[in-house]
Design brief:
With 572 residues, the protein is of the alpha+beta class. The chain has 17 helices and 28 strands. The strands form 4 sheets. Strands 23-24-26-27-28-17-18-19-20-21-22-25 form a 12-stranded antiparallel β-sheet. A 7-stranded parallel β-sheet has the order 3-2-1-4-5-6-15, with helices on both faces. It has a 7-stranded mixed β-sheet with strand order 10-11-12-7-13-14-16. A hairpin with a 2-residue loop joins strand 21 and strand 22. The longest helix is centred in the N-terminal third of the chain and has 18 residues, at 111-128. The protein is elongated, with a radius of gyration of 27 Å. The two termini are 37 Å apart.
Length: 572
């Protein structure tokens, strides 16, 4: 039996040693583990039990200096790079491996590195008939494989949310901390309102219920997924990637460093690495060995029905750090079977979820998938089917459960000038006064056991504020802005809808302080959705008065996702 030579760079690191132990169980390999510390590499190799037809050894290698000589001597069939961090890394390693006639797989998670990988190396890989995959790790290989499995056959994707929360006791190396700090507080891409925009890494956090783990705090992190999936899958509204640390102290600390850097009060964060690693000896003590991953998609399925699909992963008994290595193991197995066509590209789309999940078998790692169909829309529940069906087309489209999630238009805003009015607008996040303001309106439709709900986000020229709309047990419509909740007396009229405030709840304030609302929605002769909302306060006067029009951002067409995917693969 002919063995395949595999050179594993960074084989003694946090992820590298786990990958080494895993792939050593495969047959027919001649595995070489490298480290800058030769004794460490040899000790690891000696401690690993291999498959009967696989051999293993450890060597000393500084791949940033001596890789070409090592490749010439070893002539590997495959080079796996698990060294990291890949933020700011060049393509010297994969280029040298391809030049030497070896396939390449790496565990990169750095956005710029992954995006430039194909353009930089595809010509060389194709010329030599070799495969080069970047990002064979939790992101983008596993995350994108889960998205593909969840949305197979769908007509439209509205939102994608991907979250990773490792166990607090998981071993963390210098490379992982360096990767986090490289973008903390700096602009990172996010797919929002159907287009590529920016947010800041580790700054805006929120609490999220993770299956099997309870509530954990997460924040936006830099990955290629938002930039990659938004365009390639024509996601109509949002692609977000978030991560969270189980230790509240660690999460708070990284978030504080990010905020200080965003304000310009801190520059390079690399000097903080030793302190953070030392601090983990204490902060990890009250945490667990359980971590997880969640991928959630909402959109229209093959039958045109709105549904939410979820894939979750739960890692226990300290096996979470194996997860980032398993896509690389799956890539090795696929290469051994000749299942990957030559060329250089991100690992996203090259591996199936089934193939990656198959590598999880030896560990305390479980996955679960589920889908939830959405019932009636919030306004359909509040109005009743007959009244909702009689609405003008633009109103029915915006409020219907299958309506476009993003709308564009223009608006004008008038505001009151009193101190209390200004304070309330700040609490709620209402925008300042202005005319002919560009407006983007997004609806996120939520299916929950308590009934349908919607998150409305209005973006007035870059100033966003959101509210949550839902119905109570009586079918009455409520809208919540932060600490303020309003019951709306929803009524259909010949020319549209009226939404006066009938009840207010806010920290026990008496009813005589209840705001007055004049809110109306209607359609104009051009088929546009019009809104006119005026809020006034007793003894104070005008709070805000905003009005304008909206049209669907995506027009009337709804291309099937399979066609979009086929096109993206042909150019990507």
């Amino acid at each position: 039996m002919t063995t395949k030579g595999v050179l594993l760079i960074g084989g003694t690191g946090v992820f590298g040693q786990r990958l080494a132990r895993h792939i050593a169980g495969m047959d027919g390999l001649d595995l070489t583990i490298t480290s800058r510390n030769e004794a460490k590499a040899r000790a690891l190799a000696d401690s690993i039990t291999t498959a009967a037809t696989t051999t293993i050894r450890g060597i000393g290698l500084d791949h940033r200096r001596d890789l070409a000589a090592a490749l010439a001597k070893l002539s590997p069939w495959l080079v796996i790079d698990a060294s990291g961090p890949f933020q700011g890394a060049s393509y010297d390693v994969p280029r040298a491996a391809l030049t030497a006639g070896a396939h390449v797989v790496d565990l990169a998670d750095a956005r710029d590195y992954i995006l430039g990988f194909g353009p930089a190396l595809d010509g060389l890989a194709c010329k030599r008939g070799l495969v080069a995959l970047a990002g064979a790790s939790s992101t983008p290989a596993l995350s994108c494989a889960a998205v593909a499995a969840l949305t197979e056959g769908w007509r439209r994707i509205d939102t994608l949310d991907i979250t990773i929360t490792p166990g607090g006791r998981s071993e963390v190396g210098e490379a992982v901390i360096a990767a986090i700090l490289s973008y903390a507080g700096r602009p990172i891409p996010i797919w929002r309102e159907g287009e590529l925009q920016e947010t800041h890494g580790w700054v805006d956090g929120r609490r999220l219920a993770m299956p099997g783990l309870g509530s954990r705090r997460v924040a936006a992190v830099e990955t290629v997924d938002a930039q990659w999936l938004g365009l390639r899958l024509a996601v109509r509204s949002r692609v977000a990637f978030q991560a969270g640390l189980e230790s509240p102290i660690e999460q708070f600390g990284i978030g504080m460093l990010a905020r200080l850097r965003r304000r310009g009060w801190l520059g390079e964060l690399k000097p903080w690495i030793p302190a953070l690693l030392a601090g983990r000896k204490l902060t990890r003590l009250p945490t667990s060995d359980r971590g997880g991953m969640l991928v959630e998609a909402t959109g229209l399925d093959a039958n045109g029905e709105l549904r939410t699909a979820r894939w979750s992963l739960l890692a226990e008994q300290g096996d979470g750090p194996h997860v980032p290595t398993l896509p690389a193991a799956a890539a090795l197995r696929a290469l051994l079977g000749g299942q990957i066509v030559p060329g250089a590209r991100p690992a996203a789309g090259a591996l199936t979820l089934t193939a990656i999940e198959a590598e999880m078998t030896p560990y305390a790692i479980s996955t679960h998938s589920e889908t939830t169909s959405h019932g009636e829309a919030v306004f359909e529940t509040a109005l009743g089917k007959a009244a909702f069906a009689a609405l003008a087309a633009p109103l029915k489209t915006l409020h219907g459960k299958n309506g476009p999630p993003v709308w564009h238009g223009r608006s004008e805003i008038e505001t009151g000038n009193g101190f209390i009015a200004r304070l309330l607008r700040k609490i709620i996040g209402l925008p300042p006064a202005g005319r002919d303001i560009p407006l983007t309106f997004s609806i996120e439709r939520i299916a929950s056991p308590s009934g349908p709900a919607e998150i409305w986000t209005r973006n007035f020229g870059g100033v966003r504020f959101s509210s949550r709309l839902s119905t109570d047990a009586k079918g009455e419509l409520w809208e919540t802005f932060g600490p303020l909740s309003f019951r709306l007396g929803l009524a259909a009229r010949d020319d549209g809808l009226e939404l006066p405030v009938t009840t207010m709840r806010c920290l026990g304030l008496p009813s005589f302080l209840q705001p007055k609302s004049q809110a109306r929605e209607y359609a104009d002769t051009q088929g546009r959705f019009h809104f006119d909302v005026k809020l006034t306060l007793p003894f104070i006067g005008l709070l805000t008065h905003y009005k304008g029009w909206l049209l669907p951002a995506d027009g009337a067409d709804e291309p099937r996702l399979e066609a979009v995917r086929a096109t993206s693969h042909s150019v990507g």
